Amino acid sequence: MIVIPYPRSIRARSAMATSVLALVALSVVGVTSSLAIRYRVQDDAFNRVEQIASQWSAAARAGTLPKVIPASGDIELIQLVDAHGRVIAASRSAWARPALSTMRPPADDRVQRWTDRCRLLVAVRITMAADAPVVLAERHEPALLRGHNLEYALTAAALALLAILAWISWRTVGRTLRPVEAIRARLAAITVSDLSLRMPVPPGDDEVARLVRTANQTLDRLDEAVAQQRRFASTTSHELRNPIAGLRLQLEEALLHPGEVDPHETIRSALSLADRLDAIVSDLLVLARLSAGDPAPSELIDLGQLVTQEAPRTGRVPVRVHAASDVWVCGSHIQLVRVLGNLVNNAIRHAGSAVDVSVAASGGEAVMTVTDDGAGIAPADRERIFERFIRLDDGRRRDAGGSGLGLAISRDIATSHGGTLKAEDSPSGARFVLRLPRLGCPPAEEQVERLSTVL
After folding, report:
1. Does the predicted TM-score (pTM) go above 0.85?
2. Is residue 91 part of a domain?
3. What is the pLDDT of residue 451?
4. 445 shares a domain with 319
5. Each residue of 51-90: b (16+ CB within 10 Å) or e?
6. Do 113 and 19 fall within a single domain?
7. Which residues pair with 87 in a beta bridge?
8. CATH code, domain carrying 279
9. Is 115:109 a contact under the CB 8 Å cutoff?
10. Which strands, in side-by-side order, build the sheet including 134-140?
11. How many C-beta atoms lie closer than 10 Å to residue 163's C-beta?
12. What is the pLDDT of residue 360?
């Protein structure tokens, strides 16, 4: 058994599929055409013979039929045969021959047609009488119908058309896929160490062009993501290096100068540095979970009640809460408490005399505002402070042990809840505004229970 290997090339597969479909279609059309052509050509030939036979039949009825019947083109065999099969009149080619056929049309059907060994024979009864003579006319079957000439001609035409269709398919698919090879070569050259290369965009707006443009946009995003990861890794390494270096220095001093170093003070300082390292690592884990889209359990939350219960009340300045009730949101209680804590603790560090926390509904949003009366934030730094490990000079002076990740984590939590966190204008001090999608109305007790079960 011969096994034809399946082509690996899309171009070859497309050409093969087109050829197979065209072959099936052409086979059906060829068979149908062959039958239709045979019927049509044969019918035309019979009509011509019947016309001549009917013409001499009319002459015989009128008594004007000559003894030697003139031939009519390719119809050379014409005879007038009586009821006993004797030839009464005939064309020159048919005089020396017996009756062309012993068959006679029935009395109720004057005209009969027969096909016999590539001959077309027509018999026409002169009158309806049982013993009426019959005019016989015969011609050879048309050359197109002899043997399989018609089928050979149609097969040759079908094969030629099939070859043309296969060639057109090969050329068309090849032209369409030509940019794909350039894209493949360029993709092979793109590595993680060099994401600056882009694929050539073919002209037009077909599927390949749109695919290439989408792939280039994806590479742009990937390039930016890798650059951010590299910057983050570099900044993280720098931030972790400082407390590790301080811890190493203190431990080395304790070993090299045991008599000059207070061991209790060294341990307390090392524990402080270890706490800072633990805080940085914990914040990094939170950022990693948020960046990975790790969903936290969601529940229905009254944001005003959450702020009233969870807002930090201790600190160097008082925290005043102004929270409206029935401001419902859907989200993670733990994460929203963390956002509140980060914002309030940050405000306490920078406040002069007090911190104000408010919750209100505004249209389709739940708005939480944390405001202090400190020095405020310059407009140029209002987006920069949400970057990871960014700490302004005033923040470093007030809290040297901070990680610089609190605001970045808070914004990521706000984004994961479908909201925003921004530093906005304030008459004095800094003002942070958290906006979250608000549920349309205060849900009834049973509705809260049902939705909480679903969530």
Report:
1. no
2. yes
3. 45
4. yes
5. ebbbebbebbeeeebeeebeebeebbbbbbbeeeeebebb
6. yes
7. 81
8. 1.10.287.130
9. no
10. 87-90, 77-81, 134-140, 119-125, 111-116
11. 12
12. 93
